[in-house]
Known about the structure:
Bifunctional nuclease domain, 8 strands
Amino acid sequence: MKKIKLDIVGLSYSQTQSGAYALVLGEISGRRRLPIIIGSFEAQAIAIEIEKMTPSRPLTHDLFKSFAKAYHITVQEIIIYNLVDGIFYSKLICSDGKKVVEIDARTSDAIAVAVRFDCPIYTYEFILSTAGIVIEGNDFVYLENINEPPEEKTTTGPTGSYNSLSVDELKTRLQEALSEESYEKAAKIRDELNRRKSS
């Protein structure tokens, strides 16, 4: 079967499942999008790597990457190969330079590994035609609302009380949040710093 290359085009708080996130993959040369509901931990793991945030201690997917590199194993690609009863099935295609091995994985974990190894993500036509949606424009904002469920929004703006702090105070709070491994808080502080840079 012909493989279709995908890219991450969006990651946002799920409007349909409480505590979950919607990871949106898009075909490279088309208008179809593949939304996948994932857990908050996996969403954070993906967002942290994409945003190049450095946790104080390695996360599970970082540990996997370090372990693989220590034994000269590379992840060549990720394939979302099946869809059964609304559940996506994925596998990692790994190599040590001598042999290639396929390892079954949850799709959310596979994507978190893919962003760390900077390897391509693929799926097949029957999955895109079954579960994909066609969009007219680029409606997904990159990493939109990743750390802020709708019910947690405040009236003081997207970053709440952080807008009253100075830049130096925000940078200090950011380092504290990273050292405490409070990545949701760190992302909100980072967003406030980015907002001030662009204004």
